[in-house]
Specification:
The complex is a heterodimer of chains A (252) and B (637). Chain A is built from nine helices and seven strands. Chain A has 252 residues and is of the alpha+beta class. The longest helix of chain A has 15 residues, at 237-251.
C-alpha cells in the first residue's frame, strides 16, 4: 500500500568519466522518495534533477527491472545488489531505508571488470568464460528426440538450480579475491550432470578454468561471499562440483 | 498495391517440405563469402546468428545490452508450446496450427502458422540437446503443463524461467560460434539506420554506445530480430531498452509496417504505485484460477478491502460473464478492469487497480494449498508492494505486454525490401490479432533455428557476395544522417527531459489507443501526437555529449522514433474499423463484449508504406485466405 510519508536521503555516488580517469564520490540529495519506489526509480529521479540542472546524470546499467536479465550491478553500502537476500538492485525497494539515511553507491569492483563510466562496468570477461566451453556442441537440427535420453527429475532439478545464474557478476564483486568461481562452476555443473553435456565435461572444465585465469579473475579461497551476494542464491556446492570435475579431468 | 505473401500452394501439410526443396541453396564453399548482419540477440536473433554461423556464413551480431545473454526474451515465465503429444491427450501439428489461427482471431497467414506448428517439435529436441534443463518427471521424461487457449497439455517449461533457459541455450550456441570465429559479436551497439543500395538491404549504421562512434557495417543481407514496440505506451512489461527504433529505421527506408494496432494487454500485472514508476511487472495469469476479481460497488469508496462488506462488493467478471467468471479471456478481463476504474471504482493508489481476492479459496482449500500453488508469486508480489496477499487481496491492473504487429514479411520472413529479413516479435507473421500464451518463445526459436537458415540461402544464391563495399556513397550518407540527427537532439537544450516526453506520449496512447479504441479516441490521439512531437524537437533536454557513454542520448533517440511510430499505430487502429483479438474498437462488439470482426472488409493484413514524417502513409493490403480453418466467431464458452 502507498505510504504518504516520503524520505530524504543522502547519496554518495561513485563518479568516474572513463576507465583511465580518476574517480571519486559525489554527494547528492534524493528528495521526496516514496517507500514504494524501487532503488533504480529513486536514481531515475536524482538523474532527472541532474539533467534539469545541466549536469551529467549518473550512468548505471539496468534493463528488465524484474530481476532476471542480470544487467543491473551496484554495490550499495558495501554489499553487491544491496545485500537483501536473493534480490537484485532493480527489485530492491526504498522501504528498506529510512528518512535521513546515507547510502554509498559503487560499481562492481574487480580487476576483470574495468569501469566504463560511473556505475557501469565491462563484464565481457564473463562472456569469454562461456565462449571457452560453456555449451554442448549440438548442431542445429539433426538431434535426437527430447525424450530419447531420459534425465531423472533429481538430475534435471540439480541442473536447473545451477542454470538459474543470471550472469550479473555479483559473485565477483562480493569476493575478496575477485573470483568468478561461482559463475563458472554453475555452468560447469549444469552441463556435467546432464547426459547431453557429459561427453564434453572434461574438456569443458579445463577450458573454462583456463579462461578464468586468463581473464584476470582471482582464485577461490572459500569465503562464501559469492553465495551470500548471489541474487539467485546459487550454492557454493557447485564450486566443489567444479573442483571434482577438474580433478577427474586431470586423471584422464 | 496488393501484397503477395509468396505462400506455397497445395495441401498445407506439404507446404514447408515442398518449399524447402524448391528454394535455392548456397554451396558450402561459398557460404563463407557471404556476410550476414544479425541485429538483436534474443531468442530469434541468438538462434539465427548461431545457426547461420554454424552453416559457415560470416555473421556479425549486434545487441544494445552489454552481453548477448540479456535480451528481454529472458523474462518469459510460462513455457513454450510444441505439438509433441507426449501426454497422449490428442495433440497434433494440426491442432496446434488450428489453435494458433483461432487464437489469433483469424488474422494470420495459414502457411506460416502451419510451419510454426510443424517445427515446434524440433525446437524442443534442439533445446534438450543444448542442455536446457526442462522440467522432467521421476522417470526422466519431459513434463508438460496446460496453458490458455488450448485443451491439451503442450507447454514445456523450466520452472518459472523458461524464457531465461531457452535464451541461455541460444546464447551458449552463439558463444560456441563466437569462439569458432564464424560470428563476430558487437555488444553495446545500437542500430540507428538501415543502408539500402539499389533497393536492397546491404548494411546498417550503428552507434557504439561506449565511445559514441557512428559507423556502417556492410553485408549481403540484414536480419532484424529486434523485438516489439509496446514501450510506446511508456509503462509496459517490456525491458527499459526495448524500442521500435531498428524496425522504424527500416520502415523509413522502405520496409512496410503491418498491423501495428495489434497489441496485447495482459490482465494480471502489479498496478502502478505512483507517477515516478518506470515499468510494470507481470504476474502469471494462472492466479485467476483461484482468485476472484472485485471492486467496491460504490464510486470513490476508499475503505480498506476488509472493511467493505460482502454485499457492497462487485465481483464484476462473475456478474458480467457468468459462464467464464474470473477465467474470462485475456482481452475481456483486461477491458473489464479498465471499465471499473474508469467508473471511479478502482482501488489502490490513483484508483487504477482491482482486487484479486484469494480469501474464498484460502477458506476452501487452506493457506498451505494456495502457498504450494502460487508461493513464489505471492513472494514476488510482497517484495514489490509490501503487502501480504494471504491476508489482504492482491491488486492487479492490465499492462501492455506484447506486439503482434511488426514489419511485413513474406513466407520467407523477408520484408518487401530484398535482403532485409525480420524474425520473432519484430515481424507480424504468425500471431494474427492475438498471441496465445507460450507461443512467443516458440516463434522466436522457430524463425531463428529452422526458418532463416533455409530461406536466407534462397536470397543469397541470387546475389553476388560483397556487392556493396564500405566506401559506397549510401554508407557515407547514412552515417551523416545519423550524425546530424544526434547532433540535432543534443543541440536543442530545452527544458523538458526525455522521460517527461515519453510519459506524456504513453499517457495519450494508453488512454486513446490502449485497451479500448474508438474513432473519436483515435482522432484525438492523432491530433495530440504531432503536437508533442513538435514540442519534443523544440524543447527536449539531453545532457552530455554524443562522443561518450550517454544513456540520455540513447533514450532520446528511441523516444523520437516512438513519437513518429505512435502516429502509425493510431492510424492503423483508426483504419481497422472492426474489433479482432487485442484490437478492440468499442463500436464493434458482440452483446457479451467479445470482439466483433468484419471479415467482408478486413480479412487482410494492412501494411503501411512510409511517405514522410508529417505525410500520410500509403496502405498496401495482403488478403488472407482461410482454406484449412473455417472463418468462425471465436468462442471459448
Amino acid at each position: 500500500m502507498s505510504h504518504d510519508k516520503t524520505m530524504t536521503l543522502t547519496l554518495h555516488v561513485w563518479r568516474q568519466k572513463g576507465p583511465k580517469e580518476p574517480g571519486k564520490f559525489e554527494t547528492y540529495e534524493a528528495k521526496e522518495v516514496s517507500p514504494d519506489q524501487s532503488f533504480l526509480e529513486m536514481l531515475d529521479e536524482v538523474n532527472e534533477d541532474l539533467i534539469k540542472a545541466g549536469k551529467d546524470p549518473i550512468a548505471f546499467d539496468h534493463d528488465c527491472r524484474e530481476g532476471i536479465c542480470g544487467m543491473c550491478s551496484q554495490v550499495i553500502n558495501g554489499a553487491p545488489h544491496g545485500g537483501m537476500e536473493r534480490t537484485t538492485v532493480c527489485q530492491l525497494h526504498m522501504r528498506m531505508f529510512k528518512d535521513g539515511d546515507t547510502i554509498y553507491i559503487e560499481p562492481w569492483r574487480a580487476r576483470a571488470f574495468p569501469i566504463v563510466k560511473d556505475l557501469v562496468v565491462d563484464r565481457g570477461a564473463l562472456d569469454k568464460i562461456i565462449q571457452a566451453g560453456g555449451y554442448t556442441s549440438a548442431h542445429t537440427g539433426g538431434v535426437a528426440d527430447g525424450n530419447a535420453i531420459l534425465v531423472p527429475k533429481e538430475v534435471a532439478d540439480y541442473a536447473m538450480d545451477a542454470a538459474e545464474c543470471i550472469g550479473c557478476g555479483a559473485c565477483v564483486a562480493g569476493c575478496p579475491n575477485g573470483s568468478a568461481m561461482l559463475f563458472t562452476s554453475a555452468k560447469v555443473s549444469q552441463l556435467a550432470v546432464l547426459p547431453q553435456g557429459e561427453a564434453e565435461a572434461a574438456r569443458r572444465v579445463c577450458a573454462m578454468t583456463e579462461e578464468l585465469k586468463a581473464q584476470g579473475f582471482g582464485n577461490c579461497t572459500n569465503h562464501y561471499e559469492c553465495q551470500a551476494s548471489c541474487p539467485k542464491g546459487i550454492d557454493v556446492k557447485f564450486i566443489a562440483k567444479l573442483n571434482r570435475e577438474y580433478l577427474k579431468a586431470l586423471c584422464k | 498495391m496488393i501484397l503477395d505473401g509468396k505462400c506455397p500452394t497445395g495441401p498445407i501439410e506439404k507446404t514447408w517440405d515442398k518449399h524447402r526443396f524448391d528454394m535455392k541453396l548456397v554451396n558450402p564453399a561459398n557460404k563463407r563469402k557471404y556476410k550476414i548482419l544479425v541485429v538483436g540477440t534474443g531468442l530469434a536473433g541468438g538462434a539465427a546468428a548461431a545457426s547461420l554461423g554454424e552453416l559457415g556464413y560470416n555473421v556479425e551480431a549486434f545487441c544494445y545490452q552489454d552481453s548477448p545473454r540479456r535480451a528481454h526474451s529472458i523474462a518469459a515465465q510460462g513455457g513454450i508450446n510444441a505439438a509433441k503429444n507426449y501426454p497422449n491427450d490428442g495433440d497434433s501439428i494440426y491442432r496446434l496450427f488450428y489453435d494458433t489461427i483461432k487464437g489469433g482471431d483469424f488474422r494470420a497467414r495459414e502457411a506460416d502458422v502451419w510451419r510454426l506448428a510443424q517445427v515446434s517439435n524440433n525446437i524442443i529436441d534442439q533445446c534438450v540437446a543444448q542442455g536446457v534443463p526442462f522440467a522432467r518427471d521421476y522417470a526422466g521424461y519431459l513434463d508438460n503443463r496446460s496453458f490458455g487457449g488450448a485443451q491439451v497439455s503442450r507447454t514445456f517449461y523450466a520452472r518459472g524461467q523458461t524464457g531465461q533457459q531457452l535464451l541461455l541455450g541460444a546464447y551458449s550456441a552463439l558463444a560456441r560460434q563466437i569462439k569458432a570465429g564464424t560470428v563476430k559479436m558487437f555488444p553495446r551497439t545500437e542500430m540507428l539506420d538501415l543502408v539500402v543500395v539499389d533497393g536492397e538491404a546491404k548494411g546498417i549504421t550503428v552507434r557504439d554506445m561506449v565511445t559514441g562512434e557512428i559507423r556502417t557495417h556492410v553485408g549481403d543481407a540484414v536480419v532484424l530480430c529486434t523485438g516489439g514496440y509496446v514501450n510506446v505506451f511508456y509503462l509496459s512489461t517490456n525491458a527499459m531498452g526495448c524500442s521500435v527504433t531498428a524496425a522504424w529505421k527500416a520502415h523509413r527506408k522502405g520496409a512496410f509496417f503491418a498491423n501495428p494496432c495489434y497489441t496485447q494487454i495482459h490482465p494480471t500485472c502489479i498496478p502502478q504505485h505512483g507517477d515516478k514508476q518506470s515499468k510494470l511487472t507481470l504476474m502469471s495469469e494462472s492466479l485467476r484460477n483461484d482468485g476472484r476479481c472485485w471492486v467496491p460497488k460504490n464510486k470513490g469508496d476508499k475503505r480498506a478491502p476488509g472493511e467493505v462488506p460482502e454485499e457492497e462488493r462487485d465481483y464484476y467478471l462473475e456478474r458480467k460473464y457468468p459462464s467464464f467468471g474470473n477465467l474470462a479471456p485475456r482481452d475481456i478481463a483486461s477491458r473489464a478492469a479498465k471499465e471499473q476504474c474508469d467508473d471511479d471504482r478502482g482501488v489502490g493508489p490513483g484508483g487504477r487497480g482491482v482486487y484479486l481476492d484469494f480469501a474464498a479459496s484460502i477458506k476452501r482449500l487452506g493457506e498451505d494449498t494456495i502457498r504450494e500453488r502460487y508461493g513464489n508469486l505471492f513472494e514476488m508480489y510482497e517484495k514489490i508492494t509490501d503487502e501480504n496477499a494471504y491476508k489482504v487481496p492482491m491488486r492487479i491492473y492490465p499492462a501492455p505486454h506484447y506486439s503482434m504487429g511488426g514489419l511485413w514479411v513474406d513466407y520467407n520472413c523477408e520484408s518487401n525490401v530484398p535482403g532485409l529479413f525480420v524474425l520473432g516479435e519484430a515481424n507480424f507473421s504468425v500471431h494474427g490479432a492475438n498471441r496465445l500464451g507460450a507461443s512467443a518463445l516458440m516463434q522466436g526459436l522457430a524463425d531463428g533455428y529452422f526458418v532463416i537458415p533455409y530461406t536466407i540461402a534462397n536470397y543469397l544464391a541470387k546475389t553476388a557476395p560483397g556487392k556493396v563495399k564500405a566506401d559506397n556513397p549510401e554508407c557515407k550518407k547514412s552515417v551523416e544522417d545519423v550524425n546530424n540527427n544526434l547532433k540535432k537532439l543534443m543541440s536543442i537544450n530545452g527544458k523538458k527531459t526525455v522521460s517527461e516526453f515519453h510519459r506524456e506520449l504513453g499517457k495519450i496512447m494508453w488512454e486513446n489507443v490502449g485497451m479500448a479504441r474508438s474513432e473519436q479516441s483515435c482522432k484525438e490521439a492523432l491530433k495530440k501526437i504531432p503536437e508533442i512531437r513538435e514540442e519534443f524537437w523544440k524543447n527536449v533536454k539531453v545532457a552530455g555529449s554524443g562522443a561518450e557513454f550517454n544513456q540520455q542520448l540513447e533514450n532520446a533517440n528511441r523516444v523520437a522514433d516512438f513519437l513518429e511510430f505512435a502516429e502509425l499505430l493510431t492510424r492503423d487502429a483508426l483504419y481497422r474499423n472492426e474489433s479482432c483479438g487485442g484490437h478492440f474498437r468499442v463500436e464493434h462488439q458482440m452483446p457479451d463484449g467479445e470482439a466483433k470482426r468484419d471479415d467482408e472488409k478486413f480479412c487482410h493484413a494492412a501494411a503501411w508504406e512510409f511517405k514522410g514524417v508529417n505525410a500520410e502513409p500509403e496502405l498496401h493490403i495482403e488478403p488472407l485466405k482461410f482454406e484449412n480453418v473455417h472463418l468462425a466467431i471465436r468462442s471459448y464458452k
